[in-house]
């Protein structure tokens, strides 16, 4: 079976590795960029995604790459705690949760693809254009235009080409630009003194303004660690601007909005001031679509289900897409039936997450605390009772399929007899 993947992001590269592990070796990833560079800032890999990467043999590299998250804690604008929960192994999962630099993760995946599938398995500077059904196979245009000499044929074509996917646009030409919710995100990293236990992901604020932080490195000899942060606010602008990761912003543009957010245990203005670089982009997603798969063509990751960065699920869901798709192709003889089975399993799940993220997902507890006690509180249980907070957290875990006991007991997505079958057991503790 010959497979073409459009896009060498986290989803596309994970798919190539998953296909190889499932016994499908004739895989080529076409990427429009001339070079894969470690762009972006931090992301979180939830235990269900870490499980899949561990079963692909990348567990040790992930442990070296990121920081294992111990807890997730929500605060109001005054630094008062609203909700906290253990994460990763501390929460009973068999796999950790990691905070990692997105660009470094992409390079790790790239290097693994090149090592396992060969140096010609990734073609840079090669955008995938339109796809055509050629009667049993599919051809795609590579590069500009649709000249026959620039077309490549495969048994399966996977569109993992991001939120501006050309393959999605071919099927939904009138969809238009991504949907903006009015929020602007400033993302950056800074070397600062560790806060709390040095492994906690924090979110402070509400629907109009929020600050997120989590560590990307251990404490260094200088007593500092690299912390990823997201400073978010609701814009007065009518248009969001470019929806990408690479538009720079000065710390001075961000500082004023958070000037009084010093919680004692975390000095938000100091974190912003210490930023090495700040990237600005609007919070956008895509409306769920009724169909991903057309014969032997399908979509994956942001091309299929771009969602707001709430609940730490964007990259994690793309990785689960990859493993699910490879499992179906490795266990179902008909490619069309395999892709249909993949979509039948993944599209309802990711649609539910996308919709939940639009209503703030697990972060609803922050908004409820703000609406009911905007000036702060003495006892959070009198504002948002424990049972209500726990129900919001559990409901999101169920929607995103990372309830600890269900994930721990779920059958592996490694194809029986494949190179990953021996990795089904839990990783070393």
Q: How big a fraction of the residues is strand?
A: 15-25%
Strand order of the largest sheet: 6-5-14-15-16-13-18-17
Q: Count of DSSP helices?
A: 13
**End-to-end separation:** 37 Å
User: Structural class given helices, strands, pairing?
Assistant: alpha/beta
Strand tally = 19
Q: In one word, what is the shape?
A: globular
**Largest sheet composition:** 8 strands, mixed
* Mean model confidence by pLDDT: 92
Helix share, percent? 25-40%
Low-confidence stretches: 421-429
Radius of gyration: 21 Å
Description:
This protein has 429 residues and is of the alpha/beta class. The chain contains 13 helices and 19 strands. It has an 8-stranded mixed β-sheet. Strand 14 and strand 15 form a beta hairpin. The longest helix is centred in the C-terminal third of the chain and has 24 residues. The protein starts with a strand and ends in a 20-residue tail after the last helix. The C terminus is likely disordered.
List the helices and strands and how they pair.
Elements: E1 2-6, H1 10-21, E2 26-30, E3 42-45, H2 47-55, H3 59-65, E4 67-68, E5 71-75, E6 81-86, E7 98-101, H4 102-117, E8 122-123, E9 128-133, E10 138-142, E11 151-154, E12 156-159, H5 166-171, E13 179-192, E14 200-205, E15 209-215, E16 225-234, E17 247-249, H6 251-255, H7 268-273, E18 275-285, E19 297-299, H8 302-305, H9 314-331, H10 335-358, H11 364-372, H12 386-400, H13 404-409
Parallel strand pairs: 1-2, 1-12, 2-8, 5-14, 12-19
Antiparallel strand pairs: 3-7, 4-7, 5-6, 9-10, 10-11, 13-16, 13-18, 14-15, 15-16, 17-18
Helix pairs in contact: 1-4, 1-9, 2-9, 9-10
């Amino acid at each position: 079976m010959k497979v073409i993947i459009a896009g060498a992001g986290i989803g596309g590269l994970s798919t190539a590795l998953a296909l190889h592990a499932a016994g499908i070796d004739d895989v080529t990833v076409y990427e429009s960029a001339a070079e894969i560079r470690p762009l972006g800032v931090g992301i979180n890999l939830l235990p269900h995604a870490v499980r899949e990467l561990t079963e692909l043999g990348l567990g040790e590299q992930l442990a070296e790459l990121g920081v294992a998250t111990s807890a997730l804690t929500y605060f109001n604008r005054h630094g008062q705690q609203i909700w906290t929960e253990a994460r990763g192994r501390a929460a009973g999962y068999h796999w950790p949760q990691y905070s990692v630099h997105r660009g470094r993760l992409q390079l790790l995946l790239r290097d693994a693809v090149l090592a396992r599938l060969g140096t010609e398995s990734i073609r840079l500077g090669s955008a995938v254009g339109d796809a055509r059904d050629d009667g049993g196979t599919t051809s795609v245009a590579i590069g500009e235009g649709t000249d026959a000499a620039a077309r490549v044929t495969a048994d399966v074509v996977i569109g993992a080409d991001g939120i501006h996917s050309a393959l999605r646009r071919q099927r939904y030409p009138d969809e238009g630009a991504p949907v903006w919710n009015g929020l602007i995100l400033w993302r950056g990293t800074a070397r600062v003194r560790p806060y709390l236990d040095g492994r906690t992901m924090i979110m402070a604020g509400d629907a109009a303004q929020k600050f997120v932080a989590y560590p990307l490195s251990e404490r260094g000899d200088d007593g500092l660690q690299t912390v990823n942060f997201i400073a978010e606010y609701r814009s007065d602008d009518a248009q969001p601007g470019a929806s990408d990761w690479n538009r720079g912003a000065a710390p001075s543009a961000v500082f004023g909005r958070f000037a009084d957010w010093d919680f004692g245990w975390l000095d938000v203005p100091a974190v912003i001031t210490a930023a090495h670089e700040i990237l600005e982009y609007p919070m956008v997603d895509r409306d769920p679509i009724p169909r991903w798969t057309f014969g032997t063509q399908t979509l994956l990751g942001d091309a299929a289900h771009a969602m707001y960065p709430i609940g730490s699920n964007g990259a994690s869901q793309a990785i689960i897409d990859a493993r699910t798709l490879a499992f179906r192709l490795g266990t179902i003889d008909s490619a069309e039936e395999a892709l249909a089975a993949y979509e039948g399993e993944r599209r309802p799940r990711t649609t539910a997450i996308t919709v939940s993220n639009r209503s703030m997902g697990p972060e609803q507890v922050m908004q409820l605390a703000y609406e009911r006690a905007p000036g702060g509180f003495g006892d959070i249980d009198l504002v948002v009772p424990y049972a209500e907070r726990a129900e919001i957290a559990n409901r999101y875990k169920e929607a995103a399929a990372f309830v600890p006991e269900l994930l721990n007991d779920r059958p592996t997505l490694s194809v029986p007899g494949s190179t990953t079958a021996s990795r089904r057991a839990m990783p070393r503790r």
